[in-house]
Beta sliding clamp
Amino acid sequence: MFTAYRQFVKFFKPNTSNKNRINKSFTQNHNFYYHYCFYKLFMKITCTRDNLKKGLFAVSRIVGSGNPLQVLNNILIKTDEGRVKLSSTNLEIGVNTWVGGKIEEEGAITVPARIINEYINNLPTEKVEIETTENNTLKLESENYHTSIKGLSSEDFPLIPQVTEEPLAKIDSQELKNALSETAWAAAANETQPEISGVFMAFENDRVRIATTDRYRLAERTATLLEPARSQKEVIIPARTVGELYKILGLGKGVVEIYFSESQVLFKFDDTELISRLIDGQYPDYRQIIPKEFKTMVEVPREDLLHALKATALFAPDSNNITIEVRPDSGLTVTASSMAAGENTTQVKAKVTGGDNSAVFNFRYLLDCLNNLSEEGVIFKMINDSSPAAIVPIKRDNYLYIVMPIKL
C-alpha cells in the first residue's frame, strides 16, 4: 500500500512523547502497519495553474483512456530535486517534464490523465495546492475548487528508460519544427511497411536530412544543426513520435538536444524529454527516384495555386483526380469534372519555361505540400504525364517534394 512513496521515512521524531507513544504501541499492539500509516509523510506541493497546464499538455497527449493496463491511462506526479516531475508512457513513447512548484513534502502518485488534465484546464484561479492522502488519493485545492482524484501507486508505473550517451546533435527548436511540418505528413499511414511508416533522419556533418515517403510521394527537408554532429547516423523514427515532438516544440523556443542508444532516441527540449523506440529496418534509397532533369518549369504564386486546387477539387469528389496543363503562352490551368458535381477550369498566372506539358494528379497530395509551405512562390517541375513531378520553393534550396502523376 505504501509503495507509492519510496523514500525512507523516519518514524522517530525529536519529540519524546512521539517516540514513547510509538514504542508503547509496538509493545502493546505490535501494530507496525497502523503507525507507519499514521506517521507516514504524504506528498504536499503547491504549483501555479499555468505551470501545471503546460506540463500536463506535454505529457497527456500520448495517454489513452481505455488501456487494459490501468496505470497506462495515468500520469505520474512526483517530486524530483526540488521540482515537480510529470511522466507518461504508452510503452512505445515516454515523456517526462519538470515544472516549478513549492515542495513541502516529497512523494509520488499516478492519476488518470484525462481527469487531471481537464480539471486543471478548467480552474479559474492561479494557485493550486496538491496533496496525496491515504488509499492513493490526490487532493487538490484552489480557492473554491476542492476535489479528490482516485489514483494508483507510483510503484505500478512503468520505468521510462533513459539514454545516457552524450547528445549526437543539437538543433534550434524552430528549425526542427519547420522541417517536421514540411515532411512528417508524407509518411505512409499503413504500418504493414514499417520502414516507410516512420520519419527518416540522416545526420551528416552540420546538417540533418529529414525525409518521408509513402511510395506515391516524397518530402525531403535539410535542416541546419547548431554544431556538427558527433558522428554520422541514419535512423527511422515512428511518425507518432514525431507528431508528439512537433506539439512539444510548440511550447516554446530553445535548443533541442538529440540522443541515441542502440534502439531508442531521446529529444530533450527545455524542461521536457521525449523518448521513443526506433523503427528497425533499412529506409528505401529514395534518392534514386529523384529526376535529374525536368522538361517544364513553372514559377507560380503558392497562394494562387493553392486556391485554384481547392476550388477545382470540389469537382473531383470521388476520384481526387485533377488535370494540370502548362503552356508558355497561357500559364497554368487546373481542370476537373465529374458526372455528379459538374466541371471546373481555373487559370493561374505563371511563368512557364520549357515546352507544353500536362498530367493528372491526386489533388490531396498537392495540397498537403502547398499547405505546409510558407513561401510566396514555388516552382512546379514536370517531365511528362507518367514521370515524377516536383515542387520546390523559389527562394531556398533545402526542400524538395516529389509526387507521382496518376496514369489513367
